[in-house]
Amino acid sequence: MTQNAFLLALNELKSFQQQAASWGDSPLLVLAGAGSGKTRVLTCRIARLLRETPSEKIRILALTFTKKAADEMRTRIEAFVPGQIDRCFIGTIHSFCAEILRQHAEHMGILPNFSISHCT
Known about the structure:
The chain has helices at residues 3-11, 15-21, 38-52, 67-80, 93-103, 105-108, and strands at residues 60-64, 88-92. It is mainly alpha-helical. The chain has a single domain, classed as P-loop containing nucleotide triphosphate hydrolases (Rossmann fold), CATH 3.40.50.300.
């Protein structure tokens, strides 16, 4: 997937979704119900921003609630704009917070290799 796949994905969005995907370079918050296409919209927007903006001028933070959505977003962006995923942090809110804690563990008096237990 590259340019053609990206354009096809963009054209498959509904008009209001295309509006969100084409939103300028200012921050955007997308709130919608489950199964409404939020991940597709944000994936198209991120891919567009990566295509249109020189690498030294943009870093993208994309947070989701589920690992599945983050993995899906990462896979699609890699396909739409190969080699640009390193300009993004794509993950769950929890993984983002864990990353911040690991980067600043020394200042907080914790070990950076901490683990998070998952309750089932």
